[in-house]
Amino acid sequence: MTNYEFDAAYRDSIAGLICGVDEAGRGPLAGPVYAAAVILPPDPEIPGLNDSKKLTEKKREALFPVICETAIAYSIASASEQEIDSLNILQATFLAMRRAVEGLQVSPDLILIDGNQTPPGLAVPSQTVVKGDALSASIAAASVLAKVSRDRYLLDLDKLYPQYGFKKHKGYGTKAHYEALSEYGVSPVHRRSFLRSFFAKNGGDG
């Protein structure tokens, strides 16, 4: 079964529009968590559409405008570093997902969410899909929009804080990133709640 056939089965069962939702950036030490919501038409199919993690950066960038042009509706949203620290990463991810769904210009009849947990407070019926970014075309499209949007934002942060190397690691906890933290300290765009072990080791305040 292709990812479009997977979506078609859901679409046929409800005789309505389905929306795929996915996030990007739950794990990094810095930057917001992003989410996207995408309603795709049954056709035309987008060639090469797949889970963003299975695509090269070049392929994701190429797919981004195609998804935006093809979609019936799409929305991209985020939750900030401060919201992540205040709420925790799971609740901040749910917040970003709700914002993405609420930003749609067209209301879907069913939301397919990547993973095994549903954000509370959605106004539309939803269904979780484990490894949905590899199974559903709509979720795959959302994964690409969320990933590309976040990566682009990290490139902007790299210009503001070039000493941390965000362009290379996109905020993830690489050796180079931790070395930069040791040398330059924590920036305003770092997630302090993700750095408690770093603070403990280096005598800072987490």
Describe this protein with a few key phrases.
206 residues, alpha/beta, Nucleotidyltransferase, domain 5, 2 domains, five-stranded mixed β-sheet, 9 helices, 5 strands
SSE topology sketch:
Layout lengths: L2 H12 L3 E7 L8 E7 L17 H14 L2 E7 L1 H7 L1 H14 L7 E5 L11 E4 L2 H4 L1 H24 L5 H4 L5 H10 L11 H7 L4
Parallel strand pairs: 1-4, 4-5
Antiparallel strand pairs: 1-2, 2-3
Explain this structure:
There is one protein chain. The protein contains 9 helices and 5 strands. By secondary structure, it is α/β, with parallel strands linked by helices. The protein folds into 2 domains: 157 residues, Ribonuclease H-like superfamily/Ribonuclease H (Nucleotidyltransferase, domain 5), CATH 3.30.420.10; 41 residues, no CATH class. The chain has a 5-stranded mixed β-sheet with strand order 3-2-1-4-5, with helices on both faces. Strand 1 and strand 2 form a beta hairpin. Helix 2 packs across helix 6. The longest helix is centred in the C-terminal third of the chain and has 24 residues. The chain is elongated and about 60 Å long. The N and C termini lie far apart (48 Å).
